[in-house]
Each structure stands twice: as C-alpha cells, then as structure tokens.
Design brief:
Blueprint: E1 3-6, E2 13-16, H1 24-27, E3 56-59, E4 66-72, E5 86-88, E6 94-96, E7 101-106, H2 120-138, E8 145-152, E9 164-170, H3 175-191, H4 195-206, E10 210-213, E11 217-220, E12 231-235, H5 247-268, E13 273-278, E14 293-298, H6 305-310, E15 313-315, H7 319-331
Parallel strand pairs: 2-15
Antiparallel strand pairs: 1-2, 3-4, 4-7, 5-6, 7-9, 8-9, 8-13, 10-11, 11-12, 12-14, 13-14
Helix pairs in contact: 2-5, 5-7
Bound molecules: zinc ion (2 copies).
Length: 337
C-alpha cells in the first residue's frame, strides 16, 4: 500500500508508492559515461572568444590557464541593467523588467571531467567560484535571492555537455522559497527553533535515511523525497546562506559533494540529475529560520501531469530503501574515499 507523506519544510504531500517501482537503478545500468570532447564547444579552452567576457577566472595549477571560469549566460533569462520596478498592466496584472543576473560557471577546462571524476581540490575550486559570485551579487541592492544549480544531462535540461553550473540572481524571491520560508518562520514562532536545524537533527537521529555524516555535514534522503534518490547535503551548524560557509568548510563540502555524486553514479549508473544550492533570501541571512543546503534530484522519472498540475509527486522508491543502497555503495568504496 502506498503512503502519503507531508514534507515538513513545504507542507506539500508526496505519495510513496513502492509497488509502482520500475527499479530506477536498473533502468540504465551502464557505467557513468563521460561526454565526448567537442572542438566546437564554447566552454573548452581556446574557444573563450565565443562566450561573453569573463566575470571570474580561477587560475589553473602553477598559474597557467584557468581552472574555473564564470561568464554571463549568453542566453540569460535575466539581464543586469535597469531597475526592477513594478508596473500595473490592468486589474490583477503586474509585471516588472527581467532585471538580475544569469551566469554560467564553467567547472573545468576539461570537456569530459564530470564532477564525480574530479579531485576534491577541483570541486573545491568550483565551490569557491560559486561563493565568490554569490558574495559579489548579493552586494547588488536589486538582488533579493540567489540560486545556484546544475543541470546534468538532457533529461535535466542541459544543452551543453561540458561540465557547468548556473547562477540566477533574481529581484524577487520565488514563491516556492517564500512558502518554505513561511513554514520555517511558523516553526520558529511555535518552537523558538530553526526548522532546518531540527530537520538535520531528526534525520541524524532517525538514521535510516542517512547516507553520510562528517563532523560538519550530513547527507540524507528526505522523509518525503519527491523523486527516487533525492539527496540533501546540509551543514550541522546554523548557516542560512552559502555566503557564510568558511573557507575550511568548503574543503570538507567539496569532498562530501564529490563522494555523494560519485556514489549515486555507482548505484544508478549513468543518469541525468539536477542539483540546487538553496540559500535564504539575501535580506534574511541573519535570521534563525533557514539553512543553506544542496538538493540533488536524479531525473529517473518523467515529471508529468499530476506533478505539474498539483505539485503531488509520486516517487517509486521509499527513501529508507534508496538510502540503504547508497550507504552500502559508500561502504564498498564505490564513490571513492
Ligand atoms: Zn567543452
Ligand atoms: Zn538552523
């Protein structure tokens, strides 16, 4: 029998229906494939002139070339000029210019170097680039909310195979974030505690959805996971914004992120996924309600009418079962050490 679960952070409902399972890890079981290099790739070294001028460049080993580049998205959804002023366009209809920032983080000069194949030091450089851009953009008074995300593979919405992520800095916090924030604020009003810190503590205590724990981070598959193998990485100390992570913790986070992605790859085989780095809205970084976290969403199922129309997701595997598969793979050393 299926179960209906409430996500404590959104109050949304998720149907856990294990008997519908076409076991996702048998869907495609070839080893994680690397994309083939492409001479026409705009993100490969030598082709820099085909992209807009860079916003950040972290030098490669010995100061030669680059290790990570950040550039404006050539087809950006938002543009960094103008003011986000609201206009009334008749009753009920309001709009504003699409002011903001949409950037691309080219994670490596190597076309086939997916994050799970990188060294910890290489992943750390990517995280440092994320944080440097996050800090630069939150200084823009028009920016209210910054989200960093990665689309890996066609089903996850990427058009370019060269490893990259994106950053969007928006002049309004999205409704989904506002809603999560309201739920967290209500929890704080009721209990005087941070919902997300309570959630991390509860997942550590429950153990059966826990994937990995270090002195500073926890990796778990949430109680009301919306898709099979949804995985969160969260800090153990209260940090609402990714801007607040120390340089030392970025080193530890790089290792945890790389191992988590590599282990998911070992369990699921080649698969498409998204990850999203959530932070509190810029003006709420000092509050007690929220915790930055990385949400990894493997794209094993197609999101269809029910999910799009109602927000009710049907996941075909309970997170207790998937977390135990990932824990076993980690224990075998499948994701490296
Ligand atoms: Zn390339
Ligand atoms: Zn907290």
């Amino acid at each position: 029998m299926s179960a209906i679960r409430q996500d404590p952070t959104t109050r949304e409902w998720v149907i856990v229906a294990p008997n519908r399972a076409r076991r996702p890890h048998t869907a495609r079981d070839e080893p994680a494939a690397a994309p083939a290099p492409d001479a026409a790739c705009p993100f490969c070294p030598g082709n820099e002139a085909s992209t807009p001028p860079g916003l950040l460049r972290l030098p490669g080993p010995g100061g030669s070339g680059w290790a990570v580049r950040v550039i404006p998205n050539k087809f950006g959804a938002l543009t960094p000029s103008g003011e986000p002023v609201r206009r009334e366009c008749g009753p009920l209809f309001r709009e504003m210019d699409g002011v903001g920032h949409h950037e691309v983080i080219v994670e490596t000069p190597r076309h086939d170097r997916t994050m799970s194949r990188m060294t910890d030091a290489e992943v750390e450089l990517v995280l440092r680039a994320y944080q440097a851009r996050y800090k630069a953009l939150r200084a823009d008074a028009r920016v209210k909310y910054i989200i960093i995300f990665k689309n890996h593979g066609e089903r996850a919405g990427t058009s370019l195979s060269h490893p990259h992520s994106q950053l969007v800095a928006a002049p309004v916090p999205p409704m989904q974030t506002r809603r999560k924030y309201e739920v967290a604020t209500a929890h704080f009003d009721d209990t005087g505690r941070c919902l997300y810190c309570d959630l991390v503590e509860a997942e550590v205590e429950a153990k059966d959805r826990l994937v990995l724990e270090t002195d500073r981070f926890v990796v778990f598959q949430p109680y009301a996971s919306r898709v099979p193998f949804e995985t969160w990485i969260a800090p153990k100390r209260h940090e609402p914004s990714f801007a607040q992570v120390s340089a030392e913790d970025l080193v530890g986070l790089a290792r945890v992120l790389r191992r988590t992605l590599a282990t998911l790859g070992a369990v699921l085989g080649a698969h498409d996924f998204n990850y999203v780095l959530h932070s509190a809205p810029v003006e709420d970084e000092g509050k007690r309600y929220y915790l930055w976290h990385i949400q990894i969403l493997p794209r094993l199922q197609t999101i269809a009418g029910l999910e799009l129309g109602s927000g009710i997701f049907i996941t075909t595997m309970a997170p207790e079962e998937s977390a135990s598969l990932v824990r076993d793979a980690l224990a075998r050393g499948a994701g490296g050490r």
